[in-house]
Amino acid sequence: MAQTEPDTEELLELSSDTRSILERHDLRPLWEVEDDMGTTRQDPEADIWKWEDIQSAIDGIERDVPIADLPPGFQRRVAVPINAPNAISNSIYVGIQTVSPGETAPSHRHSANALRFTIDGSEDMKTVVAGEEFPMENNDLITTPQWEWHDHVNDSDETAAWLDVLDLPFVLDSLNARQVFENHELERQPVTKTQGYWDSQYGRGRPADEKSDGSIPGPFEGNREATPPYRFGWDEMLESLRQRAENDDPDRHDGYSLAYVNPATGKEPLFPTMSFRAQLLNEGPTDAHFHNATEVYFVIEGEGATHVGDEALEWGQWDVFVVPPNETHHHEPDDEAVLLGMTDRPVFEAFNLYAEAEPSS
Amino acid sequence: MAQTEPDTEELLELSSDTRSILERHDLRPLWEVEDDMGTTRQDPEADIWKWEDIQSAIDGIERDVPIADLPPGFQRRVAVPINAPNAISNSIYVGIQTVSPGETAPSHRHSANALRFTIDGSEDMKTVVAGEEFPMENNDLITTPQWEWHDHVNDSDETAAWLDVLDLPFVLDSLNARQVFENHELERQPVTKTQGYWDSQYGRGRPADEKSDGSIPGPFEGNREATPPYRFGWDEMLESLRQRAENDDPDRHDGYSLAYVNPATGKEPLFPTMSFRAQLLNEGPTDAHFHNATEVYFVIEGEGATHVGDEALEWGQWDVFVVPPNETHHHEPDDEAVLLGMTDRPVFEAFNLYAEAEPSS
Amino acid sequence: MAQTEPDTEELLELSSDTRSILERHDLRPLWEVEDDMGTTRQDPEADIWKWEDIQSAIDGIERDVPIADLPPGFQRRVAVPINAPNAISNSIYVGIQTVSPGETAPSHRHSANALRFTIDGSEDMKTVVAGEEFPMENNDLITTPQWEWHDHVNDSDETAAWLDVLDLPFVLDSLNARQVFENHELERQPVTKTQGYWDSQYGRGRPADEKSDGSIPGPFEGNREATPPYRFGWDEMLESLRQRAENDDPDRHDGYSLAYVNPATGKEPLFPTMSFRAQLLNEGPTDAHFHNATEVYFVIEGEGATHVGDEALEWGQWDVFVVPPNETHHHEPDDEAVLLGMTDRPVFEAFNLYAEAEPSS
Amino acid sequence: MAQTEPDTEELLELSSDTRSILERHDLRPLWEVEDDMGTTRQDPEADIWKWEDIQSAIDGIERDVPIADLPPGFQRRVAVPINAPNAISNSIYVGIQTVSPGETAPSHRHSANALRFTIDGSEDMKTVVAGEEFPMENNDLITTPQWEWHDHVNDSDETAAWLDVLDLPFVLDSLNARQVFENHELERQPVTKTQGYWDSQYGRGRPADEKSDGSIPGPFEGNREATPPYRFGWDEMLESLRQRAENDDPDRHDGYSLAYVNPATGKEPLFPTMSFRAQLLNEGPTDAHFHNATEVYFVIEGEGATHVGDEALEWGQWDVFVVPPNETHHHEPDDEAVLLGMTDRPVFEAFNLYAEAEPSS
Ligand SMILES: [Fe+2]
Ligand SMILES: [Fe+2]
Ligand SMILES: [Fe+2]
Ligand SMILES: [Fe+2]
Ligand SMILES: [Fe+2]
Ligand SMILES: [Fe+2]
Ligand SMILES: [Fe+2]
Ligand SMILES: [Fe+2]
């Protein structure tokens, strides 16, 4: 409660007797509690991670700890940008992962939602989810939703790279929930569906008269429609961005901006905890605004700067940067640029607490 | 990710060169991050606050800092049970407040949701919300929802006591949101509605053809139907409990249990962040279960014990106790007892993360 | 398709050969079909049924066919206003029923939704629905929803009278659906609930954590939340009307108007097919409007006139009148009046076909 | 109310005096009304229209009334299967329309929902809806939803043929609603969007943060999400059918069955009044069932028979047939067949009145 209080400190002095009663019973007077609320955690700072730095960190890790020396099931190279206790933000985790030819990230499932956004992939680099092999071509986004088995298999002859994005900091550090985690008995789960199956379940035609029972996978309950396993091919996203650019006006703050929808509902957010946008910036600087949601960005292509308060985050392809809550910001592409925007806005909307405004000039 | 990992500590040693690259760029390898996640905050312990101790703490505060000596607008006596950084839990705040005859808790509004549960009240102890005076008779529950003006006026000749319950710890310490707060220009907001008005808007007949615009008060956005100002009279709640006890079977874990509904929807939860139940225990001990939501209880009447793990919290009228997340618990009333149950379960349900189970015997 | 077509009748003459092909195969050219569409049924006319006429008709029926002479299970006196093939309108059926002391209207259930609005009742005149006895006091409205057992028992020593309102004309004559109907094996269903039980299930507190399975009673499927058995006591409706009149502005077309809500949702309509309003007219004539929904009115108290096109329907207590679709109308009470308004508007809203406007002056 | 009544005709004789009171006041005793309800309209019979007969009827119409002789704006050849007063059923209208090279069906809009299913089309046969040209290739389904401008332009050098499907019989003859209709001031509406625009608005990415205002086009109100202009390309539908056939079990009554979804919601029905399915039959005869919804079928490819009661409707490509409500039926393809199934089931579901069962053996 950030209201201005009268200077009442002397007035509020308590006797040692009262103080002792309070302490013995784990009680505090309200005026002491008020001042401390909202101070247990810090918002992250505006910051950027350049791709070349990320790359050299991953190279260093690989040099020091060759994957081949590691026990099976533990062969991963992931560099994690840190700007909050354990992640790039208090809600969204981003890691940059590489998998070498022939490697497999072994199959498991967990309560946290995850997705992969392919930085450098190919048709033979596959994420297997819920029985289907999803090819990871460049800029494809693949969901590995709550409690679905998933493994990553590099059957190509090139090292693959992608973004891992999870809601772990929110789930574990903010909600204080447990992460429920389970390893598959096999390193690679059986492939039981033909390629394209999950897409066909959520296309323009859908299984008729099969009312979803609304069930949520795993030992969980809730009131959000579960996100299915799904691959968002980049071709279609880019075509939709181009259609918007040819026919519509851009959003003043986010350019031509497409939300990845939950295929089950056709509506954002993709996950109950995180929303994702493909943003095309091509008409000069956007207008400044601020909001209490955090934004994490990945640069799909192009160069430019994002101004956060007085700071300019200068970005190029594959850089990662973060816009903290409540800081005024706008984007300024050099020419045309495409960003992947990630935000915890759904968390605030779930409680009628999202707020957004433009700075008064 | 609490999975059991191979003992790979030596394997994972990094060179000082790589370590320096990582540190310079705020990067960490995944294996280090994994172990720290979920450790930034502690779950509260099972604990109980006996009414006589709360009472003596409030008396001590009043003795040391007479309200009459305080500046206007600062005249409140609130004892706050502490079991987490600033409240009884990581999500729900409970305070016990008394207001003496003639006093007013001055009018203001804020982004957090609040309610009052009357411990010791009367027809002339009034909470004024959104233009209507709500009498605070014993066991009445009165909402002061997000962004509605509210003030408390004791026009009776007895000191009144009630529970303040807010979602402040969740909003401020977990979500890291700002509390938006505003004082009314008047100490007492104008009374513009007749008594019973807000109830009449959410009764069996409702304003016809007036489609709600679904707007959320204040500078907020979200996707939950806003909770209106409302008084839940105890007589009706108790009558419904009695009807259930005469006609239905009790819930195995919570006895005859009625959720306070959001009057706008007729469904729980009362607030997007918190749910409240009136629970009648009269058929011996309940069955044990555990869940990842926290429960805070206030004893409306009766005596008994709640067993949490190996611990027995023995309670009587007006005591307050807390059942932490993931701890097995059951209730055992001496005879008939009535509890007010408060839980952050809606927070978990908003993300499909609620989990509940019975211990395997 | 009511568009103006060119006068092309000669042009559209078909050869006998073509005509014969068409007829042999049950085919028609579009231009012939177009003109006939929308002509198979007539809208009802504006009309009024005075209470004294209804009363004398019922008396005549009773005189000619004494109930006592009829076989068990067939003892009812109902006068049905006719303005469409089999009812007062193409969608809503209204009948005026009387039951003498000691009589029972035997228990049964059916697919159509029904309600009773008590004209002349008492505490001992009871409608039994789903195991509970609902007293029928004056102006009480009691639902007997789809597929719920219901019987009417007059344990008082006065003849009781009420309105029966059903969606039968819509279900049977418009939808061409079958009425599924079943007699109970007993004349009076067993009373298995205490009085007040169904109300307690849909009050301010509701059974906690018991997610409704959303099931619809009987062999039916659909996507609307089923209406529960329920008694809308008149005292509470009238109090809400008074609250509105003291605090709010009236609706320009309907005065102070309260919709009876489906208790399960807290929202109108009461049934998927029909909506009901208690309307208080006390501020002079209402403004004129027209809409494609039909309105049937019952005069709860007061006198006045409703102007439909050029016609004035002059009404007093207990009269029944109908406002046909698409006719301009307004109400003009002599002094204060209270109406029960009934409308098939939900049928149009279910298909995005409701339209309403004011006449251009 | 189809219950069996005692033979009470003599008992129920009314005096001429009472009869005269009833008639003078447009009143009837309930027992007379009951018997007549549900008899005002007939259900259609099971029937089939062979493509060659439809074709020869269209040829005859064209021979007798050359389009070139008709005034502009009136140039259409449509043969309408008749099985109910003005259409193939009481709810769904189907017409077979041909448009010659160079012709335009002029632009207009109306309250009824419509779609075209292309029988014989090409890239240059276009339906223009809401500013976009949708190519009509074989088996494409194109919506022209309520109140959207639409015209059909044959810029190819072949005659095109398609199915027109509208909810006119339901809207006009059952609901007794008015058809609101408006001609565009131009014969061809301006093309203001690039091809693919409407698809891009309802794809995997959708305009971010643009909360739909839920508005319904035209002067209409309702509670269903409006259907957008949309083209369902056959390639994608067929691919989804193949995916289902390779991975899933067929529906026992409808084979591999895909509902065309409302692109705004990702859920059936396509329109509030009508639902459409692409059905692949390839595993022998389906199981028999019956339901109170009507089914109209168009044979996309293959041969076989549909058994309705004792009757066998033998069908081949492009035939149209109808399964009336409440009649037991099953399909028996000769080999593999693909059907377009059309049903008014959503009308019954809107009122919790849909019923479906298997015959007891
Ligand atoms: Fe994972
Ligand atoms: Fe932003
Ligand atoms: Fe407050
Ligand atoms: Fe519990
Ligand atoms: Fe009945
Ligand atoms: Fe009206
Ligand atoms: Fe049309
Ligand atoms: Fe069928």
TrEMBL record, chains A, B, C, D:
One of its GO terms (molecular function) is dioxygenase activity. It comes from the Archaea. Residues 239-359 form the Cupin type-1 domain. Keywords: Dioxygenase, Oxidoreductase. Residues 192-229 are annotated as: Disordered. SMART domains: Cupin_1 (SM00835). InterPro entries: Cupin_1 (IPR006045), Cupin_2 (IPR013096), GDO-like (IPR047183), RmlC-like_jellyroll (IPR014710), RmlC_Cupin_sf (IPR011051). The keyword Oxidoreductase applies. SUPFAM superfamilies: RmlC-like cupins (SSF51182). This is Cupin domain-containing protein. It comes from Halobium palmae. The lineage of its organism: Archaea, Methanobacteriati, Methanobacteriota, Stenosarchaea group, Halobacteria.
